Amino acid sequence: MGSRQIKHNGQVFTPGYLVISILDYCGYVESPYILRKHIIDNSCGDGAFLCEIVLRYCRTFLKYSNETQLLKKELQEYIHGIEIDSEIYGKCIENLNHISSQFGITDVAWDIVRGNALKERKYDGKMDFVVGNPPYVRVHNLESDYIDVKRFTFASGGMTDLFLVFFELGFRMLAAGGTLCYITPSSWLNSLAGENMRNEIIYNKYLTGVVDLGHFQPFKATTYTMISRFEKRENNNRIEYDVYDSQKNHICCIDFLSYDEINIRNKFYFSNRKELDLLKRIRYSNVKQYIRVKNGFATLYDEIFIGNIPFDKYTIPVVKASTGKWSRAFFPYDKEGNPLSYEQISSDKNVCAYLDNNAEKLLKGRKKEETPGWFLYGRAQALKDVCKEKYAINTCIKDINSIKLTEVPPGSGVYSGLYILPNEHISYTQLEKIIRNEEFIRYISLLKNYKNGGYYTFNSKDIELYINYKINLDYARRDNNIPSRQLDLFKSIV
């Protein structure tokens, strides 16, 4: 499937081993319990889930009865699907016919709707199981139905993903006591777009299990995914936290958690209880702010402003935080980070020639007279801290050896990463002790912002909270003013 089709339609098909795991996880197993229970895949594609469902239904039914005509009737009545693409719909019917024929059943009038799930209401409140792999696509990339999508509560935020809408559709389709189980991106746990969904989950307490796939990526075209299970029952307050062993295709239970334990500042985090308690302590900490963490330069045109600058005037040393490598940056600002005038900097013939050569790129079709700051950085962040002492750090780490912590003297800049700005004198040695540490790696891993190759990412607030918490602990220990059990955050589990 082409990348454009994935981007605009969100169609990513599910491998068989995951289909099996997901159906097992939602309780749709070969037992009498699944007979005469309604199940739907509301974005069924070519039938990956439905084929396994039909297999399980037929095998279970035939353990107790040999009435194939009754089995055919039940396949038509209890198994449902929706697919918007006519070609893929046809393939789905073909695949289902192939499965049913293995049991001597032909000419099944499958209840597979060829249409738009966003507009389908006949299944609302009737499904005992809702399963599937909803489309992964940003709402703004939709080629149609944008207005329909934005009417959904879970899509009323800004940069919403279509899979969030399918959660809302699925919840709507569930009957009382029903179970929903999807594999989707894990971003709904803590993204701004997922906030309405999280609020709904907290209010109704439908969430009963998650399977963390970690760095394992079953779909080449997509982000990092997880399996989540919801049950439309009252008084759910226990969430099963599991991890997926990709080597054995096996789901392993880690802990059972309450909503209070996973909900930290209206974002959801999953680990064992001890680690979540430590994470909550850091995220809710109200301690003295010894440092701030900020984003480096955002020139929006690094190839012009940073690197091989053919003059020295109006340039400063600059470090690339992601690598720790130094170069020079054209810096058309004064010591306080205020913009210099074009007349001032262009009075130097080398600077003037350089800007003239790059004017077309920087102007991006605009006119100079209408864009007085065309020769400046795209954003103002980090400009006013150039003349301050600071420490650059990369935002994508895997282990202690992958951490790039760099001293940045006054008069130098930072780009492609973050920088730590001490409010008081905090030495490089102090910061290195806190950051180049297994405790820090463990903390970042708990945030579960996965990247390729076993790496994790973090933002300025993530590291700022951690460093200030640790500095306060260290000073409290020095003053003998804190229980010893709080001193080493992850001592017992790393």
Automatic annotation (TrEMBL):
Gene3D superfamilies: Vaccinia Virus protein VP39
Enzyme Commission designation: 2.1.1.72
Keyword Cell division: no
UniProt GO MF annotations: DNA binding; site-specific DNA-methyltransferase (adenine-specific) activity
Entry keywords, A to Z: DNA-binding, Methyltransferase, Restriction system, S-adenosyl-L-methionine, Transferase
Span of domain Type II methyltransferase M.TaqI-like: 72-219
Keyword Cell membrane assigned: no
Class of this enzyme: transferase
Record field: catalytic activity: a 2'-deoxyadenosine in DNA + S-adenosyl-L-methionine = an N(6)-methyl-2'-deoxyadenosine in DNA + S-adenosyl-L-homocysteine + H(+)
Any one Gene Ontology BP term: methylation
Alphabetical list of Pfam families matching this protein: Eco57I
InterPro entries: DNA_methylase_N6_adenine_CS, MethylTrfase_TaqI-like_dom, N4_N6_ade-DNA_methylase, SAM-dependent_MTases_sf
PANTHER family per the UniProt record, alphabetical: DNA METHYLTRANSFERASE YEEA-RELATED, TYPE II METHYLTRANSFERASE M.HINDII
Protein name stated in the entry: site-specific DNA-methyltransferase (adenine-specific)
The organism of origin for this protein: Barnesiella viscericola DSM 18177
